[in-house]
Specification:
alpha/beta, Rossmann fold, 8 helices
Length: about 250
């Protein structure tokens, strides 16, 4: 039996990177997946790819920072598949970069809405309908947790906030048999990381920060998301799980 047989999963930020690879892997492992991102066309292409590979997928585009959409996504999932077992709240943005005094308030607030408020809104509607034994996963980051980096204060604050949200919800919903965890990837080859590493020197610097002297492939992070989504992690809740290639402890 596959790891997610008879499960239904929501994956946000599914149009690229970690979300895309996770949606494909979840479906491969037996889950029926509902994929979410802003662009319907990209989602439709992914859904078609999943179906052609023998999986089941439905797509609903929208803005995860909208409460209306957060509710609609859960309602859509229940309408299409009748249950919800897993929610991988993965969507994120790097946000505006620069010295903190130069960051506009509206840019700060937009980053927090996309990275942190979206997680709250997702959980607000996912938790009440989630099956006992369900799993909620947030994509956080080592940035703002084990390492500080300059010029990305809003990103660091929003990702660190997800860890606090994880711990609060894990405690609040443990009696309901629902596990809540944060996944903390290291540098990963995604469109967002390429936006950060926008020169060869920066790319090389980021690689060398990691003990493994490389960044991750999105499918490597997806495998860790699968662990947290599956019954293999049945005694794991409230964690900030580092999957960071050793960047948090590397001093060389």
């Amino acid at each position: 039996m596959n790891a997610l047989s008879n499960k239904v999963a929501i994956v946000t930020g599914a149009s690229s990177g970690i979300g895309r690879e996770s949606a494909k892997l979840f479906a491969q492992e037996g889950a029926k997946v509902v994929i979410s991102a802003r662009k319907q066309m990209a989602l439709d292409l992914l859904a078609e790819e999943i179906v052609q590979a023998g999986g089941e997928a439905k797509a609903l585009a929208g803005d995860v920072a909208s409460e209306t959409y957060a509710k609609a996504l859960v309602d859509f999932t229940l309408k299409e598949f009748g249950q919800l077992d897993i929610a991988f709240n993965n969507v994120g943005t790097l946000g505006a970069r620069g010295e903190t005094p130069e960051i506009k308030l509206e840019d700060w607030e937009q980053t927090l809405r996309t990275n942190l408020t979206s997680g709250f809104l997702g959980a607000k509607y996912q938790l009440p309908v989630m099956a006992k034994g369900g799993s909620i996963i947030f994509t956080s980051s080592f940035v703002g947790y084990t390492i500080g980096m300059p010029q990305i204060a809003s990103y660091a604050a929003s990702k660190a906030g997800l860890i606090g949200l994880t711990k609060a919800l894990a405690t609040e919903y443990s009696a309901h048999g629902i596990r809540v965890n944060a996944l903390l990837p290291g540098g990963t080859d995604t469109p967002m990381s390429r936006e950060f590493g926008d020169s060869p020197d920066v790319v090389e610097f980021v690689r060398n920060m990691h003990a493994l002297k490389r960044t991750a492939k999105p499918e490597e992070i997806a495998k860790s998301a699968l662990y947290l989504a599956s019954d293999a992690s049945s005694f794991t809740t409230g964690t900030a799980m580092l999957v960071d290639g050793g960047v948090s402890m590397c001093k060389t």
